[in-house]
Structure formats: structure tokens, C-alpha cells
Amino acid sequence: MRKLKQIIKWSIYFSGYLKWRVLKKANLEFDGIAHILLVKNNSYVFFAKICALSFTLYNPKAQVVIHCDASTYTKAKKKLALISKFRNISILLDQNLDVSWQSLKIDLLLSLNGSYDLYMDADLRWRNPIHKFTDVTFLVKEFQISSNNTMSQLLNLPKFNKFSNATMKNTSFFTFGGHYFSKDIILETKETQNNFSRLVKQLDLDEKSQSNVNRLSEQLCLSFYIGHSRKKVNYLKGSDARLDGGIVESPYFGATGLGF
Hints:
Elements: H1 2-25, E1 33-38, H2 44-58, E2 63-68, H3 73-79, H4 83-86, E3 89-93, H5 101-110, E4 118-120, E5 125-126, E6 136-144, E7 167-175, H6 183-194, H7 196-200, H8 207-215, H9 217-226, E8 233-235, E9 248-249, H10 253-256
Parallel strand pairs: 1-2, 1-4, 2-3, 6-8
Antiparallel strand pairs: 4-7, 5-9, 6-7
Helix pairs in contact: 5-6, 5-9, 6-9
């Protein structure tokens, strides 16, 4: 059984390598910058190392920048010291320890406006190379917000009723694909996320449900303002599940507490 697992593992890596060779030959391989947010929880250092290593394995021309706060920077520098010498990986101490991870994440994602840079969550593991994206791209489309008993209540607020047809988009992976959104849209997206908890208090939800909605504030704001714009939106994956063996996979450590 163990030998079979090893054979499957290496067949996946070999398949990814062949795809990289095809992209390289066609001059389509990704050679830009990928950003990882690594804050609040030292446990994510282990995952960030896997994410950066697997991404640069399949995208050797790419650069990875890991953004840390004071709680993760020292461990990240120590654990990634060796690989950062041989891979194009940078570790920065540039995140505010006193700001929520949701606010830090949306700030980082919105800072990529107009660029081909991409964002990826720390707990991702790559199994295939990627190409340069030319559309706004999220990881996957999750569900119609109006069909969710809890999230749909947001659409009753004047602030959000224009997004009645919006879908929830997974922001574990995101890129603007070179598209530029106006300063007004970027500012409104950020201001809405900043005031999100106040808006949620207007809903007829119990405390636990309010907490669950607030936890997804950055994902909801991006799904509304960026994902529901007139610009074309694509998805990296057609469907997603924990450790599904796709182009990129995640254990969803934050939600499950489980690893690879």
C-alpha cells in the first residue's frame, strides 16, 4: 500500500513537470510575483514553506514574497532560511500585528490592483504549473449568496442589495490579471470591510452567526465589489474539496485544524 502511494505521488509530480515543459516551450510559464500572507499563527509557517516550495518547483521563474507580522517573522526566517537561498523567495516583516487578518488580507489583495501579481493562502500545495493570467481570477466559485440562509440576509441591506445575483468566491487564490479597478471601487471595498461588523449587527442573526459572517468579511467584500463587476471573472478550479489532488489543494487548516 505504501509503495502504491509513492507511485501515485511521483506520477502526479511527473505529470506536473510535463505540463510545465509544455508551458515553457510555448513561453507561457508564469514568471511574476506570488504573495503569501503569514500572520497571527506560527503554525502556518509549516504550510507556507510547503506552499512556496511547491509553487517554485512548478514555476521556477516566479518570485514568492511572504508577508509576516512580528508573531511569525522570526520562525519564518529560520524555517525558510535554506530554501530562500536556492529559490526566489523573500520574507518580509511588513504586517501590523494589531490589525485583523481579514483587514491585512484585503489590503494585500487590493494592493495588487492593475498588476499580474497573484495572491495565495499559506496553506496551499501546488501540483501543477500555472500560466500568466489575463482575467480577474479566484480559486473557485462556491455558491449563490442569495441561496444561503445566513449570507443572503446581507442582500437586504441597502449597501448590498445591488449584489442580489452575486456568488461567493474563494479568495485562497486571487489575481487581478492585469486589470485596473478605479480608486473609488478599491476604496469602497476597503471601507466596507472596515465597517463590516457594524453592518452585520443590523441583521437578524444570533451572535455565533454574526461571528461566522464577520470571519468571511474580506471574502464577501471581494466577491461583491471585485467579483461582481463588469469585468470578466475566471476561476482556477471548477470545483474544490479538501486535498482533492487538483492543480492546487488545501487542507483548509484554519477551518479543519488538519494538515496535509
